[in-house]
Amino acid sequence: MARTDEAAERGRADRAQFADKVGTKEKRKIKGRRQRERGPLFYVGMFGIVGWSVAVPTVLGILAGWMIDRRWPGGVSWTLTLMLLGVVLGCLNAWLWVRRTSGRDD
Questions:
Q1: Any idea where the domains of the chain sit in the sequence?
Q2: Local confidence pLDDT in tens for the 106 residues of the chain
Q3: Using an 8 Å Cβ cutoff, are 92 and 77 in contact?
Q4: Helix (H) and strand (E) counts for the chain?
Q5: What long-range pairs does 80-84 form, CB within 8 A, spacing at least 24?
Q6: How far apart are CA 98 and CA 75, in angstroms?
Q7: Is the CB of residue 81 less than 8 Å from the CB of residue 65?
């Protein structure tokens, strides 16, 4: 009998701890909704993420194209082709990220 009482008590304590965590996160979310002003650090961070989200696919495209051009030379410059593809994918990724971040209401 003592084990079931201990297990029940532990279960109640776990539920109470979980409820406290949920309550804390809910308060933080409500506070964030009230403070819709975004400081300059938010925009610096967004600028950095947008830059990296464009730069990384571009550099990876250049690297992959350069390796293809070295191994199989031909009439098409795969370096330029994959660089352009990386820029397009990076810009799409950055646009989706900014749209998701700026339109967040939930």
A1: 1-37, 38-106
A2: 556 777 778 878 888 888 888 888 888 888 777 766 677 787 788 788 888 999 999 999 999 999 999 999 888 899 999 999 999 999 999 999 888 877 654 4
A3: no
A4: 3, 0
A5: 83/58
A6: 38
A7: yes
Distance CA 1, CA 12 (A): 17
Give the Cα separation of 62 and 20 in Å (integer). Answer: 50
What is each CA distance from 57 to 54, 67, 83, 86, 89, in whole angstroms? 6, 15, 8, 5, 7
Residue 97 identity (one-letter amino acid)? W
51: its two tokens? 């830059």
Beta strands in the chain (DSSP E): none
- Matching residue, tokens 């279960």: 11
Please give the distance of CA 64 from its chain centroid, rounded to a whole number.
24
Rounded distance, CA 68 to CA 87, Å?
Answer: 18
Amino acid present at 67: M
